[in-house]
Specification:
Blueprint (H helix, E strand, L loop, with lengths): L2 E3 L1 H19 L4 E6 L3 H15 L3 E6 L30 E9 L3 H11 L6 E9 L11 E5 L7 E5 L1 H4 L3 E5 L3
Parallel strand pairs: 2-3, 2-4, 4-5, 5-6
Antiparallel strand pairs: 1-8, 7-8
Helix pairs in contact: 1-2
């Protein structure tokens, strides 16, 4: 399995996301919301860089497990990690962060979960990797890396806190 992004390239992609978000914020307070299981780790890294840049922001994590449209296909007991949103979503400018954007179904679930907390003034999407192949009309506002893949390929993201190392592998379909 070829590594398509190493630790340094992942760091560059995260730095690019932070810079794009800073430019778009234009001094306005923003809320960064990471999707649990790797999106939250990417979001945490973005937040550290935004803090260094002096960007006013708050941070939260969103567990979308019960909002997925494939819940019946998952294990009998999905692993719930819980959401941590300690700020008012109502009227906020939200940037949802995830590791990989593929079909758009995860982001649809995240929007459903987020709206249970209130109606944001604006919702944007930041992804570490955009691999294409959408099933829904969802696109990122901020992208770290665009990765060309075949529809049936797998993109495996490993991040230090979750997986012990930073690497992205592309498993090509046969």
């Amino acid at each position: 399995m070829p590594i398509v992004l190493d630790e340094a390239q992942i760091a560059e992609a995260v730095a690019s996301l932070a810079a794009q978000i800073k430019d778009a914020a234009r001094g306005e307070r923003i809320a960064i919301v990471g999707i649990r299981r790797r999106g939250d780790e990417v979001a945490d890294r973005v937040c550290r860089l935004l803090r260094e840049m002096g960007v006013d922001h708050v941070y939260g994590m969103l567990d979308i497990s019960l909002y997925r449209d494939d819940l019946a296909h998952l294990a009998e007991s999905p692993r719930l990690q819980g959401s941590e949103i300690s700020f008012p979503v109502e009227g906020a400018r939200i940037v949802i962060v995830d590791d990989v954007l593929f079909t758009g179904r995860t982001i649809r679930a995240a929007l459903d979960a987020l709206w249970d907390y209130g109606r944001p003034a604006k919702t944007e999407l930041a992804v570490l990797i955009d691999r294409g192949h959408r099933e829904l009309p969802i696109r990122p506002d901020f992208t770290g890396v665009n990765l060309k893949t075949a529809r049936m390929d797998h993109v495996l993201v490993r991040l230090k806190i979750t997986d012990g190392e930073d690497a992205v592998e592309l498993v090509e379909s046969s």
